[in-house]
């Protein structure tokens, strides 16, 4: 587990410094004397050979992770897989990719121009997973991409890094429901993602989730700076299967709405 801890520590450092600085405040609100358990992280990429989902999964597979569920989000033009480690204490990994070939010609050309800048050697090892943007990007291209696909704009602007970490609500004792977590956060001034309802899922689908809206962070483009949505924090409560073990998968309808935590209009 040493390599697992090292990778997630590096991802956490990048996430809290560059993408979601408010994460420390969330921790202070919810920690009960022991470290919060991270249910899963999520990573985004483009479905192109040089940077596709399999490239992001490779470093996790190298440290013992195994592919599990597959998911498809037709309206957002996304495919996703999730991965689990044999050690149940290791966080799950949810990786999605934008099906670039299903998007407009303009988006395809812009994204391919970005990905063409990636040095293939930089995609070896695991450091690229938390290295940020490996391409030059101007503000106009970002806005054009975001207008068609919020996901494409976010990924173009931020590059590689954890889109979110997720607090396991199952570990908490002072609050035991996702709705209670939402109320604690709202009282502290956080905006909750209300798309599809504040709580996505229910005990019948074995998973309940919610999330904050993404932090607003400053990003440098080649022609200036802009403040745009960064990372957010998610909260998940898993319910037991008939054999007593907790459900470990994801629910497409809920995940679809969680993606909207980074929507610029919100």
UniProtKB/TrEMBL annotation:
Any Pfam family: HGLS
Cofactor(s) it depends on: Fe(2+)
The family this protein is said to belong to: Belongs to the 2-oxoadipate dioxygenase/decarboxylase family.
Coiled-coil blocks: none
Name assigned to this protein: 2-oxoadipate dioxygenase/decarboxylase
Record-listed E.C. numbers: 1.13.11.93
Main enzyme class: oxidoreductase
Keywords: Dioxygenase, Iron, Oxidoreductase
């Amino acid at each position: 587990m040493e390599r697992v801890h090292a990778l997630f520590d590096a991802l956490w450092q990048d996430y809290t410094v560059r993408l979601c600085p408010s994460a420390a405040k969330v921790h202070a609100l919810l920690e009960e004397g022991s470290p919060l358990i991270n249910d899963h992280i999520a990573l985004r990429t483009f479905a192109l050979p040089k940077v596709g989902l399999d490239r992001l999964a490779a470093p996790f597979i190298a440290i013992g992770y195994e592919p599990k569920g597959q998911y498809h989000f037709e309206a957002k033009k996304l495919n996703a897989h999730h991965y689990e480690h044999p050690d149940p204490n290791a966080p799950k990994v949810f990786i999605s990719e934008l099906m670039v070939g299903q998007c407009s010609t303009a988006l395809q050309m812009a994204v391919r121009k970005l990905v063409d800048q990636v040095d293939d050697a930089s995609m070896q090892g695991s450091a690229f997973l938390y290295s940020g943007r490996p391409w030059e990007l101007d503000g106009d291209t970002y806005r054009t991409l975001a207008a068609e696909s919020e996901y494409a704009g976010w990924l173009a602007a931020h590059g590689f890094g954890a889109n979110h970490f997720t607090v396991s609500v199952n570990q908490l004792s002072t609050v035991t429901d996702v709705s209670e977590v939402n109320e604690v956060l709202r009282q502290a001034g956080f905006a909750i993602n209300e798309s599809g309802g504040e709580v996505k899922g229910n005990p019948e689908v074995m998973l309940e989730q919610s999330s904050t809206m993404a932090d607003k962070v400053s990003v440098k483009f080649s022609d200036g700076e802009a403040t745009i949505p960064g990372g957010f924090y998610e909260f998940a409560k898993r319910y037991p299967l008939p054999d007593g073990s907790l459900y470990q998968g994801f629910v497409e309808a809920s995940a679809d709405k969680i993606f909207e935590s980074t929507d610029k209009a919100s």
